[in-house]
Write a structure and sequence with these properties.
single chain, 275 residues, 9-stranded antiparallel β-sheet, globular
Length: 275
């Protein structure tokens, strides 16, 4: 023991240090080799040497995988795990009965949108919010909070603007999917389009307008969603938007005071919860 202890750095510390340096060096060289231009097949020695280097680099990089914390790999996988949100909806404000819309949120489709939706649900942003625009065959739109204070925080950006950066679209805006409303570059905030029809192509072309699906309805599409009040949406469609439309700025500024006074029939999201 008296012989080994003074030489501990030779037996333990030095080999471990070399392993770390070797991992970095071999990974770097391996990336260079894999990204290099194709080798001329007539240069047999070069091809053979390259094959050997690739094999050696791969073998020597295997120990490096163990240096990546298991927690980090698990967390990365967990970040893309789907989760469910349940909207408890009062389709008719005059009735006390409620029903549910179950939504499967897919971070693997759009991680930024999924995370933003999760934040909004957890903050209570959608509790008592209205489906303020329901156009049959097109969309059911929600995402203006009942509480004007929440709208000042998330929409009017009185403190820190929380516009959501754009991200690639991986899914189409098919019936039952949900996307954040977009009016231009990096303009997504809190409003959600629930697609009542296939809106990826004509006549609505939501895919081309950078509406990025991040979730889909798994329960309630054929009952609760169909019962959402569309009276004002029909008036909007017939009048070309001149009547029946909720003024979204006023709705965000005054909250339920404005909506209940002028649009008392709107369906209500009583609660939104992650399950």
């Amino acid at each position: 023991l008296s012989y080994i202890m003074p030489k501990l750095h030779l037996f333990v510390i030095l080999p471990f240090t070399l392993l770390l340096l070797g991992c970095d060096a071999f990974q770097h060289n391996l990336m260079k080799i894999r990204s290099s231009k194709p080798i001329n097949v007539h240069r047999e020695h070069s091809v053979e040497d390259t094959a050997k280097r690739r094999l050696l680099g791969t073998l020597l990089s295997i120990p490096c995988l163990s240096l990546i914390p298991t927690e980090s790999r698990a967390a990365e996988k967990e970040n893309f795990t789907p989760f469910k949100v349940v909207l408890t909806v009062q389709t008719d404000p005059k009735q006390h009965e409620s029903s549910e819309i179950e939504i499967e949120v897919r971070p693997d489709w759009a991680p930024l949108a999924a995370e933003r939706f999760k934040q909004l649900v957890e903050s209570g942003f959608y509790d008592d919010a209205r489906f303020f625009r329901v156009l049959p065959g097109y969309v059911a739109q929600f995402g203006i909070a009942a509480d004007p204070k929440l709208n000042k925080e998330w929409i009017f950006c009185e403190k820190n603007c929380r516009a959501l950066p754009d991200e690639p679209r991986t899914e189409k805006n098919k019936r039952g999917t949900l996307s954040f409303a977009s009016s231009g570059k990096n303009s997504r905030q809190t409003q959600i389009f629930l697609n009542l029809g296939n809106n990826d192509g004509p006549p609505n072309f939501l895919d081309a307008q950078n509406f990025v699906p991040f979730a889909r309805v798994t329960k309630g599409m054929d009952d609760t969603v169909k019962q959402l009040n569309s009276d004002y949406g029909m008036i909007e469609s017939v009048s070309g938007g001149l009547a029946g439309s909720v003024n979204q700025v006023k709705a965000a500024y005054y909250g339920v005071e404005y909506l209940d006074a002028l649009f008392p029939k709107l369906s209500i999201i009583k609660t939104a919860k992650i399950i």
